[in-house]
Amino acid sequence: MTIDSEVVAALADRTLGPEHKALPPSAWGRTAREFLAGAPRLTDLSTPVLTLDESAIANNLAVMANWTRAAGVALAPHGKTTMAPQLWARQLAAGSWGITLATPWQAQVARAFGVGRILLANALVDPVGLRWVAAEQARDAEFEFLSWVDSVETVAWMDEHLREAPGPRLRVLVELGGPHGRTGARTVDRAVEVARAVAASARLELAGVAGYEGALGHDRGSRALDAIGHYLDEMARLHRELAGMFAAEQAILTAGGSSYPDLVLDRLAGLEGAQVILRSGAYLIHDDGFYAGISPLAGSLRSAMHGWARAVSRPEPELALLDAGKRDLPFDEGLPVPQIIAGPQAGRLDSAAVVSALNDQHTFLRAPGAVAVGSVVRLGLSHPCTAFDKWRLIPVLDDAAAADPRVVDLVHTFF
């Protein structure tokens, strides 16, 4: 699938400025390309800083591409994880079927960078978004866009707002939900009603079945796995119930976040008449927290993100305050984990070292022994989705384990 490589490459010619956290003032007024030509190092950046690890990204791309290929399923990684066209381009180059997104605006960002196939993992009921998609499909016959529907009311709303729109019918997937889950028709029977409404609509076309199992569990305990297994079996039943109603002989059947993609393969892969598409997004960056504990690929994936924060105060013998906080690092799926002291005082932290709290701009590091004022601590992080949205530009290091890693790229985000 396509992305406009020239538009993505042009990001290197954007001018750097004070809006780009952690870059030194000497970089302001220069392009990203010019800054990188000077072979900057991690020590040339200010703290706090979030970085990516190039070697880990390359590893994770290969792991997921090989895994999905061997399973005979497609991958449309969720682009909202990074909102970074440079990374989307690499995922597409590695064989991804398309890019998944969550909102019309996110889809518009992807389209601005030439993404040729977009799966919107949501119902598209925003009138502005509906008109935009219709016009874009009328303008470019090669552009593929799919949205979800989960109620008869949604079908009627979309039909009404697309009535005068140009272009082909909008392809939609009927979304099946689960008890106490997120969106989605709550029963197979209700989902069948939605599919019939799509079949009778003037502006929509039934392309398949969609769902999200990740809303039904948050761990790998038996209760969560049983609930998710039952839900995926119901998705398979819905796919079979709708046989003959799909616009194409091969219907799309999509599920699979980054927590339970193995269960999706066990329950859905190989179903007759189904093109199974996973939507895992966090795999590319992975983490040292939530996904490290729940992903079935945790043994092969590596965390590609780290926080680097400097000790600015030692008000108590075993307490150091670091200069990163909630404005800089993710905290919703677990606090940062102290890993090493970097730079001239390089070394391992005591195994008892722990981050006990984050304020807006401070990290409370409780560690036996000295963490001297001025020392830089590398932090393992949890949940890439809430890490990227705090940074407009993220430096990429050649190797985060090196004594003073080289900055080899700058990744632009669009949040």
What topology does this entry show?
Layout: H1 5-9, H2 32-37, E1 49-53, H3 54-71, E2 74-75, H4 85-93, E3 99-101, H5 104-112, E4 117-123, H6 127-139, E5 144-149, H7 152-161, E6 170-176, H8 188-200, E7 204-211, H9 222-241, E8 251-255, H10 261-268, E9 274-278, H11 290-294, E10 305-316, E11 319-322, E12 337-342, E13 347-348, E14 354-358, E15 363-366, E16 376-380, H12 385-388, E17 393-397, E18 407-412
Parallel strand pairs: 1-17, 2-9, 3-4, 4-5, 5-6, 6-7, 7-8, 8-9
Antiparallel strand pairs: 1-10, 10-11, 10-16, 11-15, 12-13, 12-16, 14-15, 17-18
How is this structure best summarized?
The chain has twelve helices and 18 strands. It is an alpha/beta fold and 415 residues long. Strands 1, 10, 11, 12, 13, 14, 15, 16, 17 and 18 form a ten-stranded mixed sheet that branches. Strands 2-9-8-7-6-5-4-3 form an eight-stranded parallel sheet.
